[in-house]
Structure formats: C-alpha cells, structure tokens
Amino acid sequence: MKLETIDYQSSDSAQRFVESLRETGFGVLSNHPINKELVESIYQEWQAFFNGEDKHDFLFKPETQDGFFPAEISETAKGHSVKDIKEYYHVYPWGRIPDSLRSNILKYYQEANALAAELLSWVEAHTPADVAVNYSIALPKMIEDSNKTLLRILHYPPMTGDEELGAIRAAAHEDINLLTVLPAANEPGLQVKTKSGEWLDVPSDFGNIIINIGDMLQEASGGYFPSTTHRVVNPKGTDTSRSRISLPLFLHPKPEVVLSERYTADSYLMERLRELGVI
Ligand SMILES: O=C(O)CCC(=O)C(=O)O
Ligand SMILES: [Fe+2]
C-alpha cells in the first residue's frame, strides 16, 4: 500500500481523495488553500511558547479542556500503559489563548475549518447512497458553528535519554472525531497502520495537508469509512535533539448531532473521554 499525494486543484481530486480515505483512512493533499507562511509562523511562535515559562499560567481546566496540558499529565493512548512523550495546548475560539498568539492561531482555525467543510462535502458526495442514508444531516452541517472543534498544538520535546521505557511520542491510536486536518509537521515521525498491519510513513513534505478519518465518521458511516490507527515514532541519531511541532484540527460535530442509532456526538465523546481518563 502507498499513500499518494493528491493535487487539491486537479479535476478529479475529490474522487481520488475519498478513495484514498476509504482505502487507507488517510488522504494527503498538495496545492491546497491553507497558507503555508501562516503555518510556519505558528510553528515558530508556539515553539517559543513551549520553551518558555508562561505556559504554566494557562494550565488546562478539566471542565472545559482548554489550555496547556503539561508532559506530566499527558495522554496515555487507549489500551496503553505508558504516557506519550508530548505536551500540548488546546485552542477553542471561546477558550483561553495567550494574547500574542491569538491572531495567527484563530486565523488558522478559521481557514482550516473552511477547508474541512469542503472536504466533508467531498466525502458526502462520494458516499454510496445506501451508506449516506444513515447520515442524520449533511456532514458539513454537522460541524457548522460547532464549539467542540478542537485545534491542538503539540510539542514533542527533544529526546533526553531519560524517557520511560517503551514510551514514544504518540502511541498507536485512533482519533475520536469525524475527520482530522493536519498540516505536515516540521519533523517526520507520523506513521499509519495498513490493512495488512505494517507501519507506513505518512509523506511529511512541508506544505502538504494530511487528513485522516476518526471514529465518529466510522460510526456515522456504519464502518464504510475506517478510522485508522496511527502513531508518532521517536527520532533517531542526530534528529533526537530536535523538537517536533504539529497542529491537528479535530473536527467535532455539535453535541446534539445524531451519529448513529447508538450515539449522539456528545454521548460518544463523553464515553471516550472517560475511557482516556481525562474527565
Ligand atoms: O503529531 C502528529 O503528527 C499527530 C498527532 C496525533 O495523531 C494526535 O494528536 O491525535
Ligand atoms: Fe491522532
């Protein structure tokens, strides 16, 4: 299996993108409308934020989940026992954001959401009728004006050699949400698990956008669109001294949206957050 990079502006991009999602759980787009200079500035200014001490003034609130999550309380992926080697910040437009970082990150939030709505319309248009009949409302409508869509700025610090045995930057997991939109990070490491069980590097050319299916789209499509296992592996050799910054946007429907006969978006999210131990 190979992950192809698809030119967003080509005439058959929608169809090829949805085929790639269906086959691999991932789609990689080049030539897309997200501003690369903006992403680069965000990587630089958030690297400085994570290197500094002010981050401790923005410690996350368990009730609202916005703010800074230090490495000591970082996530343990479902089914794993060792914490990931990462710290991160959760940005919601209604949440706390350091003043000097606010303008660029909210601009990005808005641009990435606009692209995401278009990509969801591609997914909808290329869903077979017998699957689409189960969507309770159109997929782009599910995220319209949602205050649950989460932009996470992740910082994987340089390796020190003192990491817990078996710990990696992000242990194998599936995302909870509908789709995740992720600009290629400033360092490699992201891998996807293929249907036959091998790990494949996701092309990490700066300027690509990577999209993957989350569990909520799998649930809403009755399994037609597979949520795919992925991870971030540790760097080796001289690269161990480098930080990695990444910027996943997790598209979450409005809480009341019906996902399936079993779940609303809210009941699904609460079940998963309880399993993760973060609420
Ligand atoms: O850092 C990355 O490239 C991916 C992060 C990720 O998979 C996640 O936070 O869910
Ligand atoms: Fe993920």
TrEMBL record:
Cofactor(s) needed for function: Fe(2+)
Annotated EC: 1.13.12.19, 1.14.20.7
Origin: domain of life: Bacteria
Annotated metabolic or biological route of this protein: Alkene biosynthesis; ethylene biosynthesis via 2-oxoglutarate
Catalytic activity, reaction form: 2-oxoglutarate + O2 + 2 H(+) = ethene + 3 CO2 + H2O; L-arginine + 2-oxoglutarate + O2 = guanidine + L-glutamate 5-semialdehyde + succinate + CO2
Domain Fe2OG dioxygenase: 145-253
Cross-referenced PROSITE patterns: FE2OG_OXY
Pfam families for the chain: 2OG-FeII_Oxy, DIOX_N
A GO biological-process term: ethylene biosynthetic process
Keyword Cytoplasm attributed: no
InterPro entries, per database record: DIOX_N, IPNS-like_FE2OG_OXY, IPNS-like_sf, Iron_ascorbate_oxido_reductase, Oxoglu/Fe-dep_dioxygenase_dom
Keyword field: Ethylene biosynthesis, Iron, Metal-binding, Oxidoreductase
Family as reported in the entry's similarity comment: Belongs to the iron/ascorbate-dependent oxidoreductase family.
Protein name, entry field: 2-oxoglutarate-dependent ethylene/succinate-forming enzyme
